[in-house]
Structure of sn-glycerol-3-phosphate transport system permease protein UgpA:
Amino acid sequence: MKRTIFGNQVLPWLLLAPQLVVTLVFFLWPAAQAIWQSFLREDAFGLNTSFVWFLNYRALLNDGDYMAALGTTAIFSVSVAALSMGLALGLAVSVDRLVKRAPLYTTLLVWPYAVAPVIAGILWWFIFNPTIGILPYLLDRVGYDWNHRLQSGDAMMLVVIAAAWKQVSYNFLFFVAGLQSIPASLREAAAIDGAGPVKRFATITFPLLAPTTFFLMVVNVTYTMFDTFGIIDATTGGGPNQATTILIYKIYADGFLALNLGSSAAQSVILMAIVIVLTMIQFRYIEKKVAY
């Protein structure tokens, strides 16, 4: 293995400088500001600021709406991750069996990933609109009265479907790459031994996809925690009765709408800590069961 030795010790730092600057300006500095502001209480106009230590955090623990948003986030995250990864895996397995038309199907399935989250939310809002949407009309024909404006279950299904649809393409690409990296000889040998398609998938294909599945699990959890704000805002606005208010949307509602900046900052810190802890747990415990 050939190693590259830089004669100039400054050059590596110059090459890293753009990424370091981006990380400092767009992550470390805002994170530090959020942590500092979470210990403050100020009025809506920013004219009076006081240092209150952990009062904002204690208030959140006693806030029923915040605890409800925490539970809603857990349900939403698990549902979106399971639905998007399950659909992506099924589509990837189907495409992997194709030979001639695989690139065409892959291109078509990747397109939704290029759609912005807010646009994806608007698209599904139109599809499920109780007045003009096609799906509520079809559901009404079979006796189901769909109305995500009034029924919390319908609203949750809407945001889960919209968020999962947006993420399926990303998961699909990695599952296809993982399937193509599995030696065909392994599945052929299992087929010769009499193993059917289901058994080959359960005993050979899926275990060998463990690294890809683990990676996508981490990515999907992060996606549901942060990148789904536009979908929630465009479809339900956190309603009805805060039934679809996840943590990232509550941060926006309390900070930018209610102008409670101290509580919003504390919620941001807690959300960041939750994502870090979940990621550490996944790498600490779940990765042990992954065979690379």
